[in-house]
Amino acid sequence: MSEHLIRKLGQFTTLSDSDRDAILAACGGKRRRIDPREDIIREGENPTHVNLILDGWACRYKQLRDGRRQIISFLLPGDLCDTHVYVLREMDHSIGALTPVTFAEISRETLNRITAEHPRITHALEWDALVTAAIQREWTVNLGRRIAAERLGHLLCEIFIRLRGVGLTEGHSYILPVTQADLGNAMGLSSVHINRTLQELRGCGLIVLKGRQLTIPNLAALQTASLFNPNYLHLGRGGR
Amino acid sequence: MSEHLIRKLGQFTTLSDSDRDAILAACGGKRRRIDPREDIIREGENPTHVNLILDGWACRYKQLRDGRRQIISFLLPGDLCDTHVYVLREMDHSIGALTPVTFAEISRETLNRITAEHPRITHALEWDALVTAAIQREWTVNLGRRIAAERLGHLLCEIFIRLRGVGLTEGHSYILPVTQADLGNAMGLSSVHINRTLQELRGCGLIVLKGRQLTIPNLAALQTASLFNPNYLHLGRGGR
DNA sequence: CGGTCAGTTGAGAACTTTCAACATGGGTGG
DNA sequence: CCACCCATGTTGAAAGTTCTCAACTGACCG
User: Fold this and answer.
1) Contact B126 A73 (CB under 8 A)
2) Lowest CB count within 10 Å: A16, A62, B63, B175, which one?
3) Does position B236 have pLDDT exceeding 90, yes or no?
4) From CA A45, how far away is CA A42, in angstroms rounded?
5) B238–A89: do the CB atoms touch at under 8 Å?
6) Which residue of B has its CA nearest to A131?
7) Is B86 on the interface with A (CB under 8 A)?
8) What is the location of CATH 2.60.120.10 in chain A?
9) pTM tops 0.90
10) What residues does A132 pair with on adjacent strands?
11) Which fold has domain B3-128?
């Protein structure tokens, strides 16, 4: 199950068998499973360990007093919830499940041990943290300066590449297991407008959506239409 | 000049004289000064050292092919450009000056030395990095789910608290040295709409703007109107 | 004094939201 | 097995927000 993380980090550096075993062992600990709409951790709570998504989609989100909800980022299989949270006293946002989610709880001690004994993993985790920050910055651009169709197209490109990195795409397709309302909460749009924007993208032939299966027949075309530049995902194998 | 950084970190932990001296020494190296609209570093370039803003306002920004520009974050005196950039091969965004800016270039070696010898600084820098990430997340919420007046009000609250943390406020006021166009590029709004929104905030008595001096007569009122919750700035002195 | 930049204003256009109704499909209880 | 329920997706139309364009003002500078 934690092969997703191994595979993700493998995009940046070459992990040894010992590195791989260490990751597998770290994920062997406590494991939890929750239903959609349940929270992994809530704003205001004190984080005690680092969570690794093993299966399903979760999200960071914030809810305003009057009920408006914004999804801040998607957490896909292989994603870690920041490795340094315990420096802070309390969460400033919540993490919730969008689908049934299985995740592992990794203790601070386990993480420290890995960091001490596996410099390559440490380095890869630094890369992962920087990419995560870059994704958040790109979302700022997305929400600030792209119109609905570009914005949604951009997200679909980003998710395709992220899922491909952990082996969860099939050809040009992947499973998009979230509702249109979720997409709206992530893109700062209403669910009605998401619906119409999806139709627009379908109408242009940029995507094919059958139930929950999304196909991007021509990734380059969708990227161009969405002003998507993958440089921020830093897939160039900087490591080693 | 680098007292701003010392003061900022002092919000989180108590630095020793030796810690303070180490920071001052680190900033004693190469120092550069640039004019507004010039870049400190450009997208695609290879970052070789960490920059510390000593004076003036800079910003991270991205420009789309068709010229649309989004400011991703403001860099204020005392702000460091991420301490781990050198893990990546190239910048995925640019950093540019909004006013005349003085900054120090801190080499990777210097930073490593500080990290090795001053655990309290290291810890405080971790806190600073987490707060920076939290700010970026909050901007996602801001752009996604707040209307113009709330959005701008939220930014003005955030900047007030950040500037106060480095000693750059005077009573209820601070200098807002950027143009309305800059504010628009940061908030995902047109400069025309920024202008009207500022008038709206002034009309409600939430802000007073005389030239470049901004006064927030009643911070709590502006916070309430903007749905601003300062928890994400993590000022609770978690450290020690 | 002319030029440039930042700020201001008005009006129409474009984009997005809201509301309300309806369609579809899977799951549950009778 | 069917009826019903509920969540999700779809559609239309009006309302609201924000943008664009274009003109104009004021301040500063050479």
Assistant:
1) no
2) A16
3) no
4) 6
5) yes
6) B88
7) no
8) 3-128
9) yes
10) none
11) Jelly Rolls (2.60.120)
